[in-house]
Amino acid sequence: MKILARTLAIVAFLVLGAQIVRHAYILWFEPRGSVLDKYDQPLKGQITNASSLDELLSRYDPVHKEADQARLQKPNFDRGPDFLGINEVEPFKSETMLRNAIKDWEEKSKEVYSLKFYWIVGFFCLALGAIIFKWANGWLGLTLQIAAFSEFIYWTSPTFLGPTLREFDRLLAYKLALSAISLALLLFIIWIQKIFTGERKPAEHQATS
Hints:
The longest helix has 44 residues, at 92-135. This protein has one domain (2-208). By secondary structure, it is mostly helical. The radius of gyration is 26 Å and the shape is elongated. α3 (53-73) runs antiparallel to α4. It contains seven helices and no strands. Mean pLDDT is 82; it is low at 202-209.
């Protein structure tokens, strides 16, 4: 059992450590933006600086109404030869950018909720596993601990970068913090269960005494 526990502990340590470095890099050090961003201004800047979903919705509403008016003026636009490039002209371009930003914000909000929920589930599995490992059955306890760290690693794993939104930064900050806490819990489990403490064989003990 100890060999398995050591192997899994090393793997979990490497994965969590790599995730912490990656999250910190993207959150604080990775260059963002493009030299082409100036051509999408000021809308792209407004999307990036939006502090809430309501703010994005307030910007989307008038643009959407303007786009609807344009559609009424051209009822057959979706069958014309220029339909494939319709999202490159105003007001359709702004409508599409804002709609995508709103959808991405909602997706990141859902991911933040799922991250917190499943991490807490993993924490309770870890606590229960540690108790069972010490007082009841080692294999059952280890199984629950494996399940716990699997939850930690999966839900704090990297998120693909979408539109640069504050909600994405909030999700990244949660993942960074929970990855660090998960690593601390791993080190605590290694310490209290003495996973890397080798037991000396009787013959070795006698030879050195």
